Protein backbone atom coordinates (compact mmCIF):
# COMPACT_ATOMS: atom_id res chain seq x y z
CA UNK A 1 0.00 0.00 0.00
CA UNK A 2 0.97 3.61 -0.42
CA UNK A 3 0.35 5.17 2.98
CA UNK A 4 0.19 8.90 3.66
CA UNK A 5 1.36 9.51 7.23
CA UNK A 6 0.49 12.88 8.79
CA UNK A 7 2.82 13.77 11.64
CA UNK A 8 5.20 11.10 10.34
CA UNK A 9 8.25 12.88 11.77
CA UNK A 10 6.92 12.75 15.33
CA UNK A 11 7.71 10.21 18.04
CA UNK A 12 5.06 7.59 17.26
CA UNK A 13 4.83 8.62 13.60
CA UNK A 14 8.53 8.04 12.87
CA UNK A 15 8.54 4.57 14.45
CA UNK A 16 5.41 3.70 12.46
CA UNK A 17 7.00 4.90 9.21
CA UNK A 18 9.94 2.58 9.92
CA UNK A 19 7.55 -0.33 10.57
CA UNK A 20 5.62 0.41 7.35
CA UNK A 21 8.77 0.60 5.22
CA UNK A 22 10.06 -2.63 6.76
CA UNK A 23 6.78 -4.32 5.75
CA UNK A 24 7.24 -3.16 2.15
CA UNK A 25 4.71 -0.33 2.10
CA UNK A 26 5.41 3.01 0.39
CA UNK A 27 5.18 6.10 2.57
CA UNK A 28 4.60 9.81 2.09
CA UNK A 29 5.11 11.85 5.25
CA UNK A 30 3.17 15.08 5.72
CA UNK A 31 4.70 17.16 8.50
CA UNK A 32 5.28 20.84 9.17
CA UNK A 33 8.01 20.12 11.78
CA UNK A 34 6.25 22.33 14.32
CA UNK A 35 7.00 19.75 17.02
CA UNK A 36 9.50 17.56 15.21
CA UNK A 37 12.78 17.70 13.32
CA UNK A 38 13.66 17.17 9.64
CA UNK A 39 16.63 15.12 10.90
CA UNK A 40 14.09 12.34 11.53
CA UNK A 41 13.78 11.77 7.78
CA UNK A 42 17.53 11.12 7.51
CA UNK A 43 17.39 8.76 10.48
CA UNK A 44 14.49 6.79 8.97
CA UNK A 45 16.58 6.40 5.82
CA UNK A 46 19.58 5.27 7.90
CA UNK A 47 17.49 2.59 9.62
CA UNK A 48 15.57 1.27 6.63
CA UNK A 49 17.69 2.18 3.60
CA UNK A 50 14.62 3.89 2.16
CA UNK A 51 13.94 7.62 2.10
CA UNK A 52 10.21 8.25 2.48
CA UNK A 53 8.64 10.99 0.36
CA UNK A 54 8.02 14.20 2.30
CA UNK A 55 5.48 17.01 1.93
CA UNK A 56 6.48 19.78 4.33
CA UNK A 57 3.14 21.47 4.81
CA UNK A 58 0.65 22.47 7.48
CA UNK A 59 -2.50 20.36 7.17
CA UNK A 60 -4.57 23.47 7.85
CA UNK A 61 -3.37 24.83 4.49
CA UNK A 62 -6.06 23.04 2.48
CA UNK A 63 -4.78 24.14 -0.94
CA UNK A 64 -1.24 22.96 -0.29
CA UNK A 65 -2.56 19.73 1.22
CA UNK A 66 -4.76 19.07 -1.82
CA UNK A 67 -1.70 19.30 -4.09
CA UNK A 68 0.29 16.95 -1.83
CA UNK A 69 -2.59 14.47 -1.50
CA UNK A 70 -3.21 14.41 -5.26
CA UNK A 71 0.50 13.83 -5.93
CA UNK A 72 0.75 10.99 -3.40
CA UNK A 73 -2.57 9.35 -4.38
CA UNK A 74 -2.45 7.19 -1.23
CA UNK A 75 -4.39 3.97 -0.66
CA UNK A 76 -4.64 4.74 3.05
CA UNK A 77 -3.86 7.40 5.64
CA UNK A 78 -2.44 7.19 9.16
CA UNK A 79 -3.24 10.45 10.95
CA UNK A 80 -0.88 11.33 13.81
CA UNK A 81 -0.59 15.09 13.31
CA UNK A 82 -1.96 17.15 16.18
CA UNK A 83 -1.16 19.05 19.33
CA UNK A 84 -0.88 16.85 22.41
CA UNK A 85 0.19 18.71 25.55
CA UNK A 86 -2.53 18.31 28.16
CA UNK A 87 -1.61 21.37 30.28
CA UNK A 88 -1.15 23.63 27.25
CA UNK A 89 -4.59 22.56 25.98
CA UNK A 90 -6.24 23.72 29.20
CA UNK A 91 -4.45 27.08 28.95
CA UNK A 92 -5.35 27.63 25.27
CA UNK A 93 -8.40 25.51 24.36
CA UNK A 94 -9.21 27.44 21.18
CA UNK A 95 -5.81 26.67 19.71
CA UNK A 96 -6.26 22.97 20.48
CA UNK A 97 -9.80 22.68 19.11
CA UNK A 98 -9.00 24.75 16.01
CA UNK A 99 -5.80 22.87 15.27
CA UNK A 100 -6.76 19.26 16.00
CA UNK A 101 -10.28 19.46 14.56
CA UNK A 102 -9.39 21.79 11.64
CA UNK A 103 -6.47 19.69 10.43
CA UNK A 104 -8.58 16.52 10.57
CA UNK A 105 -11.37 18.22 8.57
CA UNK A 106 -8.82 19.26 5.96
CA UNK A 107 -7.62 15.65 5.77
CA UNK A 108 -11.13 14.17 5.58
CA UNK A 109 -12.19 16.55 2.82
CA UNK A 110 -9.16 15.59 0.73
CA UNK A 111 -9.81 11.89 1.38
CA UNK A 112 -13.42 12.31 0.23
CA UNK A 113 -12.43 14.19 -2.92
CA UNK A 114 -10.01 11.44 -3.86
CA UNK A 115 -12.08 8.44 -2.74
CA UNK A 116 -9.52 7.27 -0.17
CA UNK A 117 -11.54 5.67 2.63
CA UNK A 118 -9.02 3.76 4.74
CA UNK A 119 -7.88 5.69 7.81
CA UNK A 120 -5.99 4.85 10.99
CA UNK A 121 -6.55 7.53 13.61
CA UNK A 122 -4.35 8.32 16.64
CA UNK A 123 -6.67 8.26 19.59
CA UNK A 124 -5.80 7.93 23.24
CA UNK A 125 -6.74 6.16 26.44
CA UNK A 126 -7.65 9.65 27.58
CA UNK A 127 -11.11 9.09 25.97
CA UNK A 128 -11.99 6.76 28.88
CA UNK A 129 -11.91 9.77 31.22
CA UNK A 130 -12.67 8.42 34.67
CA UNK A 131 -15.74 6.48 33.52
CA UNK A 132 -14.23 3.00 33.99
CA UNK A 133 -11.93 1.20 36.40
CA UNK A 134 -8.91 -0.43 34.74
CA UNK A 135 -8.56 -2.54 32.71
CA UNK A 136 -10.34 -0.29 30.21
CA UNK A 137 -12.41 -2.06 27.56
CA UNK A 138 -13.55 -0.62 24.24
CA UNK A 139 -17.12 -1.72 24.93
CA UNK A 140 -19.40 0.63 26.79
CA UNK A 141 -19.60 3.40 24.27
CA UNK A 142 -19.62 6.55 26.36
CA UNK A 143 -16.44 8.59 26.16
CA UNK A 144 -15.24 11.58 28.11
CA UNK A 145 -12.08 13.54 28.80
CA UNK A 146 -10.88 15.88 31.50
CA UNK A 147 -9.06 18.41 29.32
CA UNK A 148 -9.40 20.05 25.86
CA UNK A 149 -6.67 17.89 24.30
CA UNK A 150 -8.55 14.76 25.38
CA UNK A 151 -11.85 16.28 24.22
CA UNK A 152 -10.42 16.71 20.71
CA UNK A 153 -9.83 12.94 20.67
CA UNK A 154 -13.36 12.25 21.98
CA UNK A 155 -14.87 14.58 19.39
CA UNK A 156 -12.80 13.25 16.51
CA UNK A 157 -13.67 9.64 17.39
CA UNK A 158 -17.34 10.66 17.27
CA UNK A 159 -16.96 12.59 14.01
CA UNK A 160 -15.16 9.69 12.34
CA UNK A 161 -17.77 7.21 13.60
CA UNK A 162 -20.59 9.42 12.27
CA UNK A 163 -18.96 9.70 8.85
CA UNK A 164 -18.35 5.95 8.69
CA UNK A 165 -21.99 5.28 9.67
CA UNK A 166 -23.39 7.74 7.12
CA UNK A 167 -21.27 6.88 4.10
CA UNK A 168 -20.54 3.37 2.84
CA UNK A 169 -17.00 2.29 2.06
CA UNK A 170 -15.05 3.69 5.01
CA UNK A 171 -12.60 1.56 7.01
CA UNK A 172 -11.51 3.52 10.08
CA UNK A 173 -9.35 2.33 12.99
CA UNK A 174 -9.55 4.36 16.20
CA UNK A 175 -6.39 3.34 18.03
CA UNK A 176 -6.44 4.19 21.73
CA UNK A 177 -2.84 4.40 22.88
CA UNK A 178 -1.86 3.98 26.47
CA UNK A 179 1.60 5.38 27.39
CA UNK A 180 4.14 4.96 24.59
CA UNK A 181 7.80 5.19 25.65
CA UNK A 182 11.21 3.84 24.59
CA UNK A 183 12.72 4.21 21.15
CA UNK A 184 14.02 2.33 18.15
CA UNK A 185 16.65 -0.27 19.06
CA UNK A 186 19.14 1.47 16.72
CA UNK A 187 19.20 4.48 19.06
CA UNK A 188 18.59 6.68 15.99
CA UNK A 189 15.01 7.79 16.71
CA UNK A 190 13.18 8.42 19.96
CA UNK A 191 11.15 10.98 21.88
CA UNK A 192 12.47 14.54 21.66
CA UNK A 193 10.03 16.90 23.37
CA UNK A 194 10.60 20.63 23.07
CA UNK A 195 10.95 22.50 26.37
CA UNK A 196 10.28 20.84 29.70
CA UNK A 197 8.89 17.33 29.12
CA UNK A 198 5.28 16.91 30.25
CA UNK A 199 5.51 13.15 30.37
CA UNK A 200 7.33 10.95 32.84
CA UNK A 201 9.65 8.89 30.61
CA UNK A 202 11.31 11.73 28.68
CA UNK A 203 11.66 13.66 31.94
CA UNK A 204 13.37 10.69 33.62
CA UNK A 205 15.72 10.36 30.62
CA UNK A 206 16.69 14.02 30.77
CA UNK A 207 17.52 13.61 34.46
CA UNK A 208 19.52 10.46 33.74
CA UNK A 209 21.63 12.28 31.14
CA UNK A 210 22.19 15.26 33.46
CA UNK A 211 20.02 17.85 31.74
CA UNK A 212 17.73 18.17 34.79
CA UNK A 213 18.51 17.72 38.50
CA UNK A 214 15.72 15.38 39.62
CA UNK A 215 12.39 13.83 38.72
CA UNK A 216 9.28 15.27 40.39
CA UNK A 217 7.03 12.41 41.48
CA UNK A 218 3.50 13.77 41.32
CA UNK A 219 2.05 12.30 44.52
CA UNK A 220 2.81 9.15 46.52
CA UNK A 221 -0.53 8.93 48.30
CA UNK A 222 -2.59 7.28 45.57
CA UNK A 223 -4.45 4.04 46.38
CA UNK A 224 -1.82 1.97 44.56
CA UNK A 225 0.79 -0.56 45.75
CA UNK A 226 3.56 2.00 46.35
CA UNK A 227 1.33 5.12 46.37
CA UNK A 228 2.49 6.46 42.99
CA UNK A 229 0.44 6.56 39.78
CA UNK A 230 0.23 3.39 37.68
CA UNK A 231 0.21 3.47 33.86
CA UNK A 232 0.27 1.02 30.98
CA UNK A 233 3.62 1.87 29.35
CA UNK A 234 3.99 0.40 25.87
CA UNK A 235 7.17 0.18 23.78
CA UNK A 236 6.81 2.58 20.85
CA UNK A 237 7.97 -0.14 18.42
CA UNK A 238 5.16 -2.44 19.63
CA UNK A 239 2.77 0.48 19.16
CA UNK A 240 4.11 1.11 15.65
CA UNK A 241 3.60 -2.55 14.77
CA UNK A 242 0.04 -2.25 16.09
CA UNK A 243 -0.61 0.42 13.46
CA UNK A 244 0.66 -1.83 10.69
CA UNK A 245 -1.50 -4.70 11.99
CA UNK A 246 -4.58 -2.45 12.05
CA UNK A 247 -3.87 -1.08 8.58
CA UNK A 248 -3.45 -4.54 7.10
CA UNK A 249 -6.69 -5.82 8.67
CA UNK A 250 -8.81 -2.76 7.96
CA UNK A 251 -10.10 -3.92 4.57
CA UNK A 252 -12.08 -6.60 6.46
CA UNK A 253 -13.61 -4.08 8.88
CA UNK A 254 -16.53 -1.98 7.68
CA UNK A 255 -17.08 1.40 9.34
CA UNK A 256 -15.18 2.70 12.37
CA UNK A 257 -13.89 0.50 15.17
CA UNK A 258 -11.81 1.20 18.30
CA UNK A 259 -8.89 -0.87 19.55
CA UNK A 260 -6.79 -0.38 22.69
CA UNK A 261 -3.04 -0.51 22.13
CA UNK A 262 -1.41 -1.25 25.47
CA UNK A 263 0.23 -4.14 27.28
CA UNK A 264 -2.49 -4.78 29.86
CA UNK A 265 -0.08 -4.18 32.78
CA UNK A 266 0.30 -1.22 35.11
CA UNK A 267 3.69 0.09 36.25
CA UNK A 268 4.13 2.70 38.97
CA UNK A 269 6.16 5.90 38.71
CA UNK A 270 8.70 4.50 41.18
CA UNK A 271 8.95 1.21 39.27
CA UNK A 272 9.51 3.04 35.99
CA UNK A 273 12.28 5.18 37.50
CA UNK A 274 13.90 2.01 38.88
CA UNK A 275 13.81 0.38 35.42
CA UNK A 276 15.59 3.41 33.92
CA UNK A 277 18.16 3.34 36.75
CA UNK A 278 18.97 -0.28 35.87
CA UNK A 279 19.19 0.50 32.15
CA UNK A 280 21.41 3.54 32.66
CA UNK A 281 23.47 2.03 35.49
CA UNK A 282 23.13 5.17 37.57
CA UNK A 283 20.94 6.66 40.28
CA UNK A 284 18.13 8.92 39.10
CA UNK A 285 17.30 11.42 41.88
CA UNK A 286 13.63 12.10 42.59
CA UNK A 287 11.50 14.15 44.98
CA UNK A 288 7.85 13.66 45.84
CA UNK A 289 5.71 16.73 45.09
CA UNK A 290 1.93 17.20 45.25
CA UNK A 291 -0.37 15.41 42.80
CA UNK A 292 -0.81 16.91 39.34
CA UNK A 293 -4.34 18.14 38.64
CA UNK A 294 -6.42 15.76 36.56
CA UNK A 295 -4.16 12.69 36.98
CA UNK A 296 -5.83 9.34 37.50
CA UNK A 297 -4.41 6.89 40.04
CA UNK A 298 -4.35 3.93 37.65
CA UNK A 299 -4.80 3.25 33.97
CA UNK A 300 -4.21 0.15 31.89
CA UNK A 301 -5.74 -1.57 28.90
CA UNK A 302 -7.83 -4.62 28.34
CA UNK A 303 -6.01 -5.88 25.24
CA UNK A 304 -8.38 -8.72 24.35
CA UNK A 305 -9.94 -7.04 21.33
CA UNK A 306 -6.66 -6.05 19.65
CA UNK A 307 -5.25 -9.53 20.19
CA UNK A 308 -8.36 -11.26 18.80
CA UNK A 309 -9.12 -8.95 15.90
CA UNK A 310 -5.76 -7.48 14.88
CA UNK A 311 -3.64 -10.51 15.71
CA UNK A 312 -1.31 -8.12 17.52
CA UNK A 313 0.15 -8.20 21.02
CA UNK A 314 2.87 -6.10 22.64
CA UNK A 315 5.98 -8.25 23.18
CA UNK A 316 8.46 -5.83 24.80
CA UNK A 317 8.64 -5.33 28.57
CA UNK A 318 9.53 -2.38 30.80
CA UNK A 319 13.24 -3.37 30.80
CA UNK A 320 13.23 -3.27 26.97
CA UNK A 321 11.52 0.14 27.01
CA UNK A 322 14.06 1.53 29.49
CA UNK A 323 17.02 0.06 27.58
CA UNK A 324 15.91 1.47 24.20
CA UNK A 325 14.86 4.83 25.68
CA UNK A 326 18.23 5.15 27.42
CA UNK A 327 20.15 4.15 24.27
CA UNK A 328 18.37 6.89 22.32
CA UNK A 329 19.02 9.53 25.01
CA UNK A 330 22.64 8.49 25.57
CA UNK A 331 23.43 8.74 21.85
CA UNK A 332 21.44 11.97 21.43
CA UNK A 333 21.72 13.83 24.75
CA UNK A 334 20.04 16.91 23.25
CA UNK A 335 17.76 14.99 20.92
CA UNK A 336 17.84 15.74 17.22
CA UNK A 337 19.46 19.13 17.92
CA UNK A 338 22.76 17.22 18.30
CA UNK A 339 22.65 16.35 14.61
CA UNK A 340 24.75 18.95 12.83
CA UNK A 341 24.33 17.48 9.35
CA UNK A 342 21.56 19.95 8.56
N1 LIG B 1 4.43 11.85 36.45
C1 LIG B 1 5.29 12.24 37.44
N2 LIG B 1 6.21 13.19 37.16
C2 LIG B 1 6.32 13.78 35.94
C3 LIG B 1 5.43 13.37 34.92
C4 LIG B 1 4.49 12.41 35.22
O1 LIG B 1 5.23 11.73 38.56
O2 LIG B 1 7.19 14.65 35.74
C5 LIG B 1 3.47 10.75 36.70
C6 LIG B 1 2.01 11.10 36.50
O3 LIG B 1 1.42 11.62 37.67
C7 LIG B 1 1.43 9.75 36.09
C8 LIG B 1 2.58 9.07 35.36
O4 LIG B 1 3.76 9.73 35.80
O5 LIG B 1 1.12 8.99 37.22
C9 LIG B 1 2.50 9.17 33.85
O6 LIG B 1 2.37 10.54 33.46
P1 LIG B 1 2.54 11.00 31.95
O7 LIG B 1 2.41 12.48 31.91
O8 LIG B 1 3.78 10.40 31.38
O9 LIG B 1 1.33 10.29 31.21
P2 LIG B 1 -0.24 10.46 31.46
O10 LIG B 1 -0.76 9.09 31.71
O11 LIG B 1 -0.57 11.50 32.43
O12 LIG B 1 -0.68 11.04 30.05
C10 LIG B 1 -0.67 10.21 28.92
C11 LIG B 1 -0.48 11.02 27.64
C12 LIG B 1 -1.66 11.90 27.39
C13 LIG B 1 -2.92 11.14 27.50
C14 LIG B 1 -2.99 10.42 28.82
C15 LIG B 1 -4.22 9.60 29.00
O13 LIG B 1 0.67 11.83 27.73
O14 LIG B 1 -1.54 12.40 26.07
O15 LIG B 1 -1.87 9.54 28.91
O16 LIG B 1 -4.22 8.55 28.11
F1 LIG B 1 -3.98 11.98 27.40
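Sequence proposed for the structure above (342 residues):
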Amino acid sequence: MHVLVTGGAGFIGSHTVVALLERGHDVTIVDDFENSSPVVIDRIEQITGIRPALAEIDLLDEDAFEVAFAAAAPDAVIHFAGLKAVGESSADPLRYYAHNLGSTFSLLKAMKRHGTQTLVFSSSATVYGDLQEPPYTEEGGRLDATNPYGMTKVMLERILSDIAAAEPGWHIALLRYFNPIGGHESGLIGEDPSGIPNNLAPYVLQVSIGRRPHVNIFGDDYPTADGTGERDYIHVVDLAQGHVAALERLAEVDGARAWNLGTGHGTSVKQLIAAFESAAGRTIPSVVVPRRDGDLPRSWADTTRAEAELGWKATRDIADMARDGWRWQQRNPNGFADDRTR
